Amino acid sequence: MKSTTRSLAVLLATALVLVIAPSPSIAQDKGKTAAAELTKESQAALARLNASAPLAKLLGPKAHAVLVFPSVTKAGLGIGGQYGEGALLKAGKATAYYKTTGASFGLQAGGQKYGYAMFFMNEKALAELDKANGFEVGVGPSVVLVDEGMAKTTTSTTLKEDIYAFVFGQKGLMAGLGIQGNRIARIQPK
Fold it and tell me: Model pTM?
């Protein structure tokens, strides 16, 4: 019985690794077509977010830039990981491309897809994005994860943070979704 349970756990862990393994990024070999597709997906995801979250729509014109990851895959069984690619949009146009990665350890099982957008409210916060070897959410400029309650009570006069982040489009089953500890690094299309 123990060997069957262990075999099943190894099989499930292998399947999860294959699910979360990143497909080749635009930095590796997809080129300009992939960059154009990622731009289109990011713009569409931001439009859906703006339609469903009035605060996101309010923040857009005030932000220096918005980094949108239209699809991030997260999976884990004890050890978890996540990966996604997105575009930095300024005035609606893509100016750079990024990947988001993360690892986690602990009591967890399942898989999920979601998107997230980060509204950079000032130039200083935006400059942190390309410093060193990548931007780690939760280190450096303050990032506020906007939930439904905050979205209802926030007005344009109470917006004082460096970065506001929205998680949207969650699909799948996994406990504990957040972006704290995600690492964001720039990728270059060929």
Answer: 0.75
